[in-house]
Amino acid sequence: MSTPTSATSALPSRTFTNASVEDDALTGEDTSEVTKLFSERLAAWKHAVGYLHDFITSTEKVNHSHGKEYEKVLKTVSSPLKEGHHFDQSLGGVAGVFENIRSNTQGISNAHYDTAKQLKGSVLPIFDRLHTEIKNKTKELTKGAGKQSKTVDKARAVTQKHIELLGQRTATFDSAGGRITAAEDPYVLQRGVMFRLNKQIQEENNNRQDLISVQNSFAQFEAHVIQTIQHGMGQFMQVVSTMSEQKKAMYGDMVGKAQAVPLDFEWNGFIQRNNTILIDPSAPARSVTNVHFPNQDHRATQALIAGSLERKGKIMRSYDTNYYVVSPAKFLHEFKSDDDFAKDPSPELSLYIPDCIVGGCNGTKFNIKGKDVSKGKVGNTFSMNHELQFKAHTPQAANQWWEIIRQAAGQVSGEAPESSAPTSPATGNNSPGAASPTTNGRQPAPLQTEGLEKSASVTSPQTAGTVGTTPASAAPASGVEGEPGKY
């Protein structure tokens, strides 16, 4: 066996620590792993270039979209100025500023469209070509070194098969007593292993040389890849920088035109164009007293009586002074004051007199029971009847108020208010046959209206000074002819 050992040691081989002879014959450089590593590296470069390609593509789409968006911006100033005749149409004014804005906005839109075209036509093809080169390099590696690696693996498998066969025959050599066939002779098998091992190693060396060439070419190829990327990004920078500078210049031109307008340019032109219309500063100011408007003096706008009265509060029971008006529409309105200018003179309280019950007049006092209708339709629905006690400054004034209110009232009670503080109502004073106000030497209680029905008759407004009621069976009549129906 010394000859085979010598022959084996003469073949090129790799020495590994703690490895057997069989292992040394079959464990050369794993070229398939090298090929796989190079394939992964090419895939990494291909993906990196793909990212840059996607970045440029997205930037191109964004610029194209910006071009459309700036067309929308242009539409905001594309129409002529409303009331444009108020602006000077010559250069240097506001009209010129808007014309400058239109032209520059259109220029910005065009700049974005041009940028998108340049990115798509000049920059993207650089990365497209590089991406194709990397794919071709991958195919070259697969068909060249990759295919050779498969040949090496096949040769190693053949050598392994014959080494295993040699091991089987040498193991049975002694037990067989030397009776073996010529094809199974370990000597012949050992020489067959040497033949196949030599062929395997030649394939390994050839593949190794190919991989060394590929490995050396990778440095140059990667330098080319990086150089191409740098060139493409430089082109990208030049395109977007040009667009940015144009955009900046156009915005600067817009601002510059606006800032160059003299502060009095438009005003002076406006004064010159409208000198026959503008107000003369020396003319006197207007006054409300000198203004007249339609129906200002209509009889429906003139109060029947107006002035200050005192009304007893519902809670504090003290008298508060307010301004009251009886209008021709038969409303008794309460205002805080007679000032028409301090605030909107909306009534604080409004009584529709034909729907009210009016008591008698006693000195400076008289009572009215009715519903406040100043809160609108919804408020009036939930409003309740209240008995309101009024006091004038003098008996003559009280009688004048009472007489005007009585003529428009729906119902008039025969009861007069007390001259002093009100007391509890006397029983029976709310019936048509009530006792005289001076019965038993006492003043009558405040106006009692709880027992009056809606069907109670109304004292005729033409019978001035008459105080009393009619039978309940009488048909209801209007307090003033031609006015709405009463309770």
UniProtKB/TrEMBL annotation:
InterPro entries xref list: AH/BAR_dom_sf (IPR027267), BAR_4 (IPR046868), PH-like_dom_sf (IPR011993), PH_domain (IPR001849), SLM1/RGC1-like_PH (IPR046869), Slm1_PH (IPR043453)
Keywords: Phosphoprotein
Region of interest (Disordered), residue spans: 410-487
Alphabetical list of Pfam families matching this protein: BAR_4 (PF20400), PH_20 (PF20399)
PANTHER family reported in the protein's UniProt record: CYTOSKELETAL SIGNALING PROTEIN SLM1
Domain of life of the source: Eukaryota
Protein's name in the database: PH domain-containing protein
Xref: SUPFAM superfamilies: BAR/IMD domain-like, PH domain-like
PH domain segment(s): 302-410
Gene3D superfamilies from the UniProt entry: Arfaptin homology (AH) domain/BAR domain, Pleckstrin-homology domain (PH domain)/Phosphotyrosine-binding domain (PTB)
Coiled coil: none
Polar residues composition bias: residue spans: 420-442, 456-472
